[in-house]
């Protein structure tokens, strides 16, 4: 494979653009970016009855504290999440989905299920397992190089 980093970057960019375009077409454009990632993360954590702090979002999205704070602030303004102060540490704030977000989760899940299905059309399941194995190994290699703690300061 010639220039694998270029191929991965191009592929990642294509997925990002496709998800944004499809989300906009469906009238849920915010789901195509970081806000959508946070909503999905919170939904999974809520299913497990886990509380989520802003620092958990920082870690999940690999972003800085200020970027995470601004992202959550925008999501509060958009009515997607609400904040609740911790009773044990007033500086810590739990982030929860609003009823508005929860009521839209089926639509969001259906959207991403459809995207996944379209993306994986005509892909052999055995080859997909190999692809996942290779991606996992690449992620391990990145960790060994020291690239697992890099913060991304880009916002959407």
UniProtKB/TrEMBL annotation:
<dbReference type="InterPro" id="IPR036388">
    <property type="entry name" value="WH-like_DNA-bd_sf"/>
</dbReference>
<keyword id="KW-0238">DNA-binding</keyword>
<dbReference type="GO" id="GO:0003677">
    <property type="term" value="F:DNA binding"/>
</dbReference>
<keyword id="KW-0804">Transcription</keyword>
<dbReference type="InterPro" id="IPR000835">
    <property type="entry name" value="HTH_MarR-typ"/>
</dbReference>
<protein>
    <submittedName>
        <fullName>Winged helix-turn-helix transcriptional regulator</fullName>
    </submittedName>
</protein>
<dbReference type="GO" id="GO:0006950">
    <property type="term" value="P:response to stress"/>
</dbReference>
<keyword id="KW-0805">Transcription regulation</keyword>
<dbReference type="InterPro" id="IPR023187">
    <property type="entry name" value="Tscrpt_reg_MarR-type_CS"/>
</dbReference>
<feature type="domain" description="HTH marR-type">
    <location>
        <begin position="1"/>
        <end position="140"/>
    </location>
</feature>
<dbReference type="Pfam" id="PF12802">
    <property type="entry name" value="MarR_2"/>
</dbReference>
<dbReference type="GO" id="GO:0003700">
    <property type="term" value="F:DNA-binding transcription factor activity"/>
</dbReference>
<dbReference type="InterPro" id="IPR036390">
    <property type="entry name" value="WH_DNA-bd_sf"/>
</dbReference>
<dbReference type="InterPro" id="IPR039422">
    <property type="entry name" value="MarR/SlyA-like"/>
</dbReference>
């Amino acid at each position: 494979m010639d220039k694998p980093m270029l191929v991965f970057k191009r592929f990642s960019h294509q997925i990002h653009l496709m998800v944004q375009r499809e989300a906009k077409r469906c009238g849920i454009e915010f789901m195509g970016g970081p806000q959508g990632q946070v909503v999905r993360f919170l939904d999974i954590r809520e299913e497990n009855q886990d509380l989520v702090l802003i620092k958990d979002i920082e870690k999940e999205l690999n972003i800085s504290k200020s970027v995470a704070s601004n992202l959550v602030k925008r999501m509060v303004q958009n009515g997607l999440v609400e904040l609740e102060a911790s009773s044990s540490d007033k500086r810590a704030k739990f982030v929860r989905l609003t009823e508005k977000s929860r009521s839209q989760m089926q639509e969001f899940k259906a959207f991403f299920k459809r995207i996944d299905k379209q993306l994986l059309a005509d892909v052999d399941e055995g080859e997909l397992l190999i692809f996942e194995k290779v991606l996992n190994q690449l992620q391990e290699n990145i960790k060994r190089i020291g690239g697992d703690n890099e913060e991304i300061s880009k916002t959407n």
